[in-house]
Amino acid sequence: MDLRAALTAHRLVAIVRGDDPDAALRTVLTLTEEGIELVEVSLTGKSALTVIERARQALGPGRPLGAGTVLTASDARAAREAGADFAVTPALGEGIGAAIEAGMPVLAGVMTPTEIVAARGLGAAALKIFPAAQAGGPGYLKALRGPFPHEPFVPVGGVDEDAARAYLAAGATAVGVGSPLVGDAADGGSLTDLRARARAFRALAEEFTP
């Protein structure tokens, strides 16, 4: 898949991490039903690879599905086998090269200018500013866009609706959103509430859709 184009088109990545695999699967499917096109299942969730595999079976081959918290080469290979289309990392590491070798574009975690340059050298398709709130928020993104005006930045970490709007207004290609969107749905919480949050975030993202 063309991850950069997908991020530009949809502006939002939903991050699913939970302790109830069945609930996590329901969360993924509910998000996609509500028009959230890019969903990442974090490998730190319980039975995450099984969740990815079951989600792939339910969604079919044409719907993008990501694996998050890909740290090692074995993580990358297992995620690909389970059916992931793209990989997301919290930092630079061996998972990036292994994911690319397996045919998955990578949203690579970075914080500093040095890491941005390194991630691009490793072949990352897009750059995840993480943890974005601790890095300095939208002001830090604006500062990075000075020396890196064309890089596809995706802030992640502490991104609620207000922060998402601020990051996108500051030039982020997309934002990654976990608990402010998913809430407790991946642990068995209300899917009705999840649908309401998904609609709100999707409407926000659409404000910035080219």
UniProtKB/TrEMBL annotation:
Its EC number is 4.1.2.14, 4.1.3.16. It holds the Pfam family Aldolase. SUPFAM superfamilies: Aldolase. InterPro entries: Aldlse_KDPG_KHG, Aldolase_TIM. Pathway: Carbohydrate acid metabolism. GO terms for molecular function: (R,S)-4-hydroxy-2-oxoglutarate aldolase activity; 2-dehydro-3-deoxy-phosphogluconate aldolase activity. Keywords: Carbohydrate metabolism, Lyase. Belongs to the KHG/KDPG aldolase family. Homotrimer. NCBIfam families: eda. This is Bifunctional 4-hydroxy-2-oxoglutarate aldolase/2-dehydro-3-deoxy-phosphogluconate aldolase. The gene is eda.
